[in-house]
Amino acid sequence: MSYSITEPSSRQKTVAGFLVITYSLVTLIPLLWVFITGFKTPPDSISYPPKVFFTPSLEGYVNLFTTRTRVTPEQLEALPPPANFAEEIVRNRKMVIAGPSKFGERFMNSVIIGFGSTFLSIFLGTLAAYGFSRFKVPLKDDLLFFILSTRMMPPIAVAIPIFLMYRKLGLSDTHLGMILLYTAVNISLAVWLLKGFIDEIPREYEEAALIDGYTRFQAFYKVVLPQAATGIASTAIFCLIFAWNEYAFAVLLTSGNAQTAPPFIPTIIGVGGLDWPAVAAGATLFLLPVLIFTIFLRKHLLRGITFGAVRK
Amino acid sequence: MAEIVIKNLKKQFGDFTAVHSSTFTVEDGEFFMLLGPSGCGKTTTLRMIAGLELPTEGEIYIGGEEVSQQPASARDIAFVFQMFALYPHMNVKRNLTYPLVSQGMPRREIKAKLAEVVEILGIEDILKKPVSGLSGGDRQRVALGRAIVRNPKAFMMDEPLGALDAEFRERMAEELRALHDRMNATTVYVTHDQLEAMQMGDKIVVMNHGVVEQFGTPQTIYDKPATLFVANFIGSPAMNFLPFNGTVESGSSEILMNGVSVAVPQHLESAQGDLVFGVRPEHVSIADDGVVKGEVIATEYLGTTQIVSVKTEYGITRSRQDSATQFTIGDNIGLQFASSTVTLFDKGSGRALRSALNQEVLSHG
User: Fold this and answer.
1) Residue B212 has pLDDT above 60, yes or no
2) CA–CA separation, A120 and A112 (whole Å)
3) Which among B198, B214, B255, B334 is least surrounded, fewest beta carbons within 10 Å?
4) Are B274 and B345 a contacting pair, CB within 8 Å?
5) Which sign does the torsion angle of CA A150, A151, A154, A159 carry?
């Protein structure tokens, strides 16, 4: 029997394929279940045994975006015919639409805070990483360790001091407050990851630019940044995922104005019974931005994970 | 183009002194080699001239203007890096025009300049290509193109042939030299390859441990080494060193080595103790009545010549002989030295003793 060291055998490939498929199923089935639950009616969603085949309905999405009021049959009779599909679905449940829900607003808060803090983390992180990578900074190692050490405890351990500080500073329940908070948590990760990437970019590129008559900042901006795009993209994804999914601080520090989607989605459960399709619809929509962002940057992400991210 | 004057240049990195105190002059239009083993401070010196490192002490003049503490962008010099450092996210054309864009040159002039460089280097067909796909030689040409497009005051080259295949290196070395002659540009070139330095340079500075050991034309450095280090570093095979304990009298042209009288150039200083008798292999001849006797232990065929290794009381001495002569391993032969070419060194300091051969080199070296 002949075999090659570099090329896996067909049996190894089969086993590897089987493992990958099994793992994908284990992780994807819950997501798929959430996705299809969003298209079930509330009775279908809690039927036993669970329904795999069902008539899809948009009731979950309608319920997610609206608030509804129950009306008497006489009142229902008196109404003009439903103007759109949403009203039709709601009237079938003997209710009328009272107004829009807060979901859209909360979702926008998530977008502003998630992307805002990601941008700020990357902006500050890239500059800091470049400085640490290229210049003689006094106490460099100590500073880097200090930056890393902010990540050594779970962030929620400082929840109470932050809560009190934010209340004093008027940052509670503000977009700025949440952006600053998530940036503070993410920046250590950003500095360390980006420093690894920038360390791998040969200095000669910048030196060539300096010789060619560019200033240090121009060299950074025009030569280093395009080279670091891979690292920046993968770091941005990590930062966004954290800020997007963060729940504990969002519950603690936001209630109205700046509330993000994670603390909002569970509150749907309480409105008019256990409305699982609406929760599932909210969760599905909530997953989309990170998914799109990741797909958008996936080329960079793949390279980023295999190159540079693990160095130092 | 410009003359470059280096005065007492010194560079320290923390406690480490990379360059002690270098002084030399690169004349206008010269192809100037900074030669030395790795870690000798030659690249640091080059980077200081370019402005990529600022000197701890000392002065640098480019074209009569002091630039020691000026940033690289203000010095108007070009730099060719060992790994070329072409901007990887730009194609060949943009790489070439990038230095001109920074000067805010009008587009028409840029186009004319570009055409000129493309013509000189013969890189018409790769202009639109991304630099990542280029062969080593093409990268080299683009890197050179980026340097010459600006008509800088001087070129700095940091081992630009180091990353090329041996076969290609020869050709590129010729091209480089031809380009230099055509542009009549002042070029400072760093290399650790003594053959490259001898082949291409008008002048060579030999550095070791951050110290300039010798500064001169290739012939001077080869024939009249100022130190043991230079004598050993230059030439392949290196100079023969025959250590002995003896005395040299000022004005004498004869020394006693282990009781045998050996002719040397007339010496201008006296020395005593541990000395080293240095002679190049091509100046060692085979003679039955030679002053040193030994046994042939190996022959190395080099085409028209051969290197004969002879084991003597001083260790192994190599002689360059015509290939036609037959030598058999085990033969006992005598060695004679061409007396006018001999350099004596003081073993302790490594310094060459002044003699009729090297007096004009050492007096200002």
Assistant:
1) yes
2) 12
3) B334
4) no
5) positive
In chain A, the number of structural domains is 2
Q: Which of A134, A211, A227, A303 to mutate to test the interface with B (most CBs of B within 10 A)?
A: A211
Average pLDDT, chain B: 89
> What residues in A contact B87, CB-CB < 8 Å?
205, 208-209, 223
Q: Is there a single domain that holds both residue A241 and residue A130?
A: yes
Q: Which residues of A touch B71 (CB under 8 A)?
A: 210
Whether A49 and A113 share a structural domain: no
Q: How many CB pairs under 8 A join A and B?
A: 53
Residues 6+ apart with CB under 8 A from A231: A193, A194, A196, A197, A198, A304, A308, A309
Interchain pair A207, B72: CB under 8 A? yes
Ordered domains of chain B (ranges, CATH): 4-223 (3.40.50.300), 239-362 (2.40.50.140)
Using the predicted structure, report yes or no on whether residue A307 has a pLDDT greater than 80.
no
Question: Where in the sequence is the domain holding A176, given as residue range(s)?
Answer: 104-306
- Rounded CA separation A308/B1 (Å): 42
Q: Cβ contact (<8 Å) for B79 and A214?
A: no
A78 and A173 housed in the same domain: no
Rounded to the nearest angstrom, the gap between the alpha carbon of residue B57 and the centroid of all alpha carbons in its chain is: 24
How far is CA B302 from each of CA B197, B305, B321, B350, rounded to the nearest angstrom? 21, 5, 10, 30
User: Within an 8 Å CB–CB cutoff, is residue A202 touching chain B?
Assistant: yes
Who among A202, A214, A226 is closest to B85 (CB)? A202
Q: pLDDT value at position A2? A: 56
Interface residues on B facing A, Cβ-Cβ cutoff 8 A = 50-52, 71-73, 77-79, 81, 83, 85-89, 98-99, 102-103, 146, 150
Give the residue with greater pLDDT, B171 vs A161. Answer: A161
pLDDT, one tens digit per residue, over A167-206 is 999 999 999 999 999 999 999 999 999 999 999 888 888 8
Examine the pLDDT at B192 and tell me if it is beyond 50. yes
Please report which confidence band the pLDDT of residue A3 belongs to, taking 50, 70 and 90 as the band edges: low
